[in-house]
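Hey, resending since the last one bounced:
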Amino acid sequence: MTYLIVTLSYLFILIGIIIYKSRSVKTEEDFVVAGRGVPVYLLVGTLVCTWIGSGSLFGTAGLTFRTGFSELWFSAGAWIGIVLVYFIAARVRKIARYTLTDLLETRYNNAARLLGTITIIVAYLVIAGYQFKGGGRFISILTEGAIDPETGMLISCILIITFTAMAGMVSIVSIDIFNGVIMIIAMVVALPLAIQSHGGWNEVVGTIEAKSPEYLSLFEGHDTIWILGIMLPTFLLLMSESSMYQKFSSARDATSARKAVIGMLIGVVVIEVLMCTLAVVGYAIYAEDARFFLADGSVNRGMAEEIILRIGFEQLPAVAGSVLFAAGVAIILSTGNTFLMVTSTNVSRDLISKYIYKNENGSNVRIQRISVIVLGLIAYVLVSQFETILEMAFISYTMIGASLAPVLLASFFWKRVTAQGGVASIICGMSVPVINKVLESTDSSFSIFGIGFPVDTDYIAIPSLALSLTALIVVSLLTPPSPDSKWKPFFQEEGN
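The structure tokens again:
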């Protein structure tokens, strides 16, 4: 009962904040970029919460349960991406567009914007969908099975859609500072208590060494290709994270945007290392628990994704476990809000307002709210196409990253890139993971350049990025250079 009371209390606090903040939303700029007045501390909170979602709470935890500390390579891809983002954050804020696709149109052309929009919509709906899926598991565990995961998924869908539609970016940045703090507190409290529940760190190490000693190493049991394969999706996604670019545009100024990146790096590294370690401890705790393993001894991937919440519900004192569950609410709600928000912005601004309905009566906010509802329902339907949250993460991360990261980085670092090269790169990057998924679903296969398709999900980012980069470079070099007006805004630091 303690878990339910604490979790619901935290949820009601967030609801109160969102209702209050929704009253301040008057214009599209308020809804989409929070009026461009977000201070650094709020921006740090919302950037951290953008990244730490159900993909971390469930997918990354599940990967840790089956690989050990080598999962940190998956997380490290994002850390490297954050460092690179530091060098372009000020430029993004200086350009001061609404969305990532605005940047694509400015640097390339309308075709690049449209293709980028389609890629973001599809991939982000998958990401939003697995917040619903994670929420369903969360509610099922919290109610001890009284609410099944499918019903819990529907409840999560309704809550996230409602929260996002009410106040947009204002609600997201307002609650994310609370969510970020509760995440860190929960992990700091949960880890030592979980270790203690298994008899101390030496007992944890002893259990793992007896069953799977490679879990204690970053390298053992994995080759360079595997490491590259799991690093690339998070790196590429971080570099092409549309919601981050939208949030940079919410900053008060370019300096605030850059400072926020530093805070984001610290927050993400701390939380992800703690979560990885907690999942490793969970492997020791549940090493002989039949629920987590299949008949052949391999890890039950679906159950493994619940490891952190299982520790909180079954191993920790009620108060500490309740804090962990409150963090779960924060993680699922914040990330679901963010990805629905960005997707609806792309639909309302890049498709509806641009090609279907020209707003003349200040109705953009209403259109975007309707978009949030419709897209949320589509995301709910998409969930059924995937078995695990980690699979959904790999596919969506790769689809966005391989198609958008190369063209975005080229915008800020390569003056010679052309519109034709950018369009070709986006098409190639978005096609590979989609084709791969279709081949899996239809039990079909083929080989190209010695690479057999479908590729295991752990490695899909490698051929996707290779084809995208090749198209970007070759087509750009074969087409006339872009005029100076296209690239100059992307090479101006603040004050220039």
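The two ends are 59 Å apart (CA to CA).

Sorry for the duplicate.
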